[in-house]
Amino acid sequence: MPVTRVAGDDTSIQFDAFAPHYDAFTSGSDYERWTECVLAHARSHGLAGQTLLDVACGTGNSLIPFLARGFDVVGCDSSSAMLAEAARKAPQTQLVLADMRELPALGRFDLVTCIDEPLNYLATESDLVAAFRSIAANLAPDGLTVFDLNSLLTYRTTFAHDDVSESDDGRVFAWRGESSGDAEPGCEACAWSTSSYPRRMARTTVSAAATCNVTSRASGWSRCSLTRSSSRSR
Ligand SMILES: C[S@@+](CC[C@H](N)C(=O)[O-])C[C@H]1O[C@@H](n2cnc3c(N)ncnc32)[C@H](O)[C@@H]1O
Q1: Mean pLDDT by 10 residues, the chain (234 residues)
Q2: What spacing in Å lies between the alpha carbon of 83 and ligand 1's midpoint?
């Protein structure tokens, strides 16, 4: 199913850059367990139906387990590159390019999810209000919404560390977190990422005239995610 374009702004550019690496970066995330947790919460509050809107669905990892459980799913995200990955993995799913602060009328859903910190990217109260208004407008009369938020710990760990990993096919992914281990509540965090296939270093030879050193360098760092506001840790 083709991706429908509704809205988008410059913040999506950071996620567009991150999209090719996202699944490798989150390979340790247990979406099956998260889904069971979301469903347990929703059912304990009376979830009855099977229609789902996954807001900020990214590359589809947060909606695919719901498809497997028989839900009728629509996904939306503000990054076209993230949605392109989702469309590849869930080709029958309706995917909409839309900012969560100004969602169009997509339906009346029994459940609206927003999983793995998308709300943390909304750094002002007015943005949060706009997002919840948009979500509310897409809920069925007895519909429910379930979302998560990062705690301060994420800003003191994931966003404070550098990390380099290599995929099976040799691609190297580097992450640079610019937060600090003692980040305070209310901080904003920033991280940079890059990915490339390392180029082979040319052999160096010592000739009578000179020593030739040829090295390769990973391509420039690209900013992948910008402002995040932390929730207060409890
Ligand atoms: C960490 S990813 C989570 C993706 C997916 N829910 C998952 O669990 O894998 C955060 C997602 O939020 C999306 N996002 C950030 N701000 C957004 C906004 N204002 N409107 C819609 N999507 C947004 C990004 O494009 C990205 O795909």
Answers
A1: 50 81 87 98 96 98 98 97 97 97 98 96 93 98 96 91 78 84 88 76 50 38 38 35
A2: 10
| pTM assigned to the model | 0.83
Q: Among candidates 143, 126, 146, which has minimal Cα distance to 36? A: 146
Question: What φ, ψ does residue 75 adopt, rounded to 5°?
Answer: -115, 150
Q: Helix 11-25 crosses helix 80-89 at what angle (to 10 degrees)?
A: 40
Among candidates 222, 156, 142, 143, which has minimal Cα distance to 189?
156
Could you tell me the fold of the domain covering 4-147? Rossmann fold (3.40.50)
Q: Is 135 in the pocket of ligand 1 (CB under 6 A)?
A: no
Atom of ligand 1 nearest to the CA of 12: 25
